[in-house]
Amino acid sequence: MSSSTVSVVIPCKDDARLLRVCLAALAEQTVLADEVIVVDNRSSDDSAAVAEAAGARVVRCEEPGIPAASAAGYDAASGDLILRLDADCIPPVLWIEEMAAGFDEHPRAAALTGPAQFYDGPAALRRPLVACYLGAYVVVSSAALGHRPLFGSNMGIRRAAWREVRDGVHRSDQEIHDDMDLSFHIGAEHRVAYLRGASVMGMSMRPFYDGRAFMKRFSRGMRTVTIHWPEDFPPRRWTRLLRQGASR
Q1: Which pLDDT tens digit goes with each residue over 60-107?
Q2: Full 3-state SS string of the chain
C-alpha cells in the first residue's frame, strides 16, 4: 500500500444533488483520502452544505470558472498526491487505491490519468459515445501536446509538480479547459502516464444534452491550444520534448 498522503479535489458549482452521490462513493473507497476538498465556485444551491455534511473541507472560490476553482483546490491540498474528479462523477471503490499505487508504479511520472465511462443516458449509446468523446479528445490533444493529455474527471498530480507550475497555468481564463491547460504545463517538463486497466471512472453524459454547451467545449479546447502559441506550436513543442527526452 502506498505511503503517500492523498487529497481529493472536486470543483463544484450548483451541483448539490450529484455532489452528494460523488461524496458517498468517496466514503466507500477501499483506501480513504486523507482529505476531500470541495471547491465551491459561487454556488447558489446547497453544494457547500452537502460537502460539509459529508465531512469534506469546503474551499470558497469567488473567481468564476473551473480553471480558477480547480487551481484553488490544488493550492489548498496538503496531500503528497492530488486526485481530481468532477462533482458529477462516481468513482469506483478502488479508485483512490489504484491511483496511489499507480504513482508508485510510475515514479518518474508527475501526473496520471485514467479511463471513464458514462453511467447515465441511453444504455445503448454509452459505450460508443464515450469512445468518440474521449477518443477525439485524446487524439486532438495529443497532437497539440506531443503526449497524452490529462482528463479532468479522472486524474492525479504530485503536489510537488503542481507547485512548480501553479504560477503559469491560466487559472483566470474561464474560457479554457483546465485539464488540457495543466497538461501543457506539466508535460513541458514532466511525464504524464496513463493507467491502463485501472478502475473506470463513472461520469455523466451531460456534455451531450445541450448542443450549444457541447460546441462551447469545442471552442474552449481550441482556445486552450492556441493560447499557448507560438511557444507551444506543435512542431516547436514536439522538437523540444524530443530533445528533453533524449537528455533524460
Answers
A1: 999 999 999 999 999 999 999 999 999 999 999 999 999 999 999 999
A2: CCCCCEEEEEEECCCHHHHHHHHHHHHCCCCCCCEEEEEECCCCCCHHHHHHHCCCEEEECCCCCHHHHHHHHHHHCCCCEEEECCCCCECCCCHHHHHHHHHHHCCCEEEEECCEEECCCCHHHHHHHHHHHHHHHHHHHHHHHCCCCCCCCCEEEEHHHHHHHCCCCCCCCCCCCHHHHHHHHHHCCCEEEECCCCCCEEECCHHHCCHHHHHHHHHHHHHHHHCCCCCCCHHHHHHHHHHHHHHC
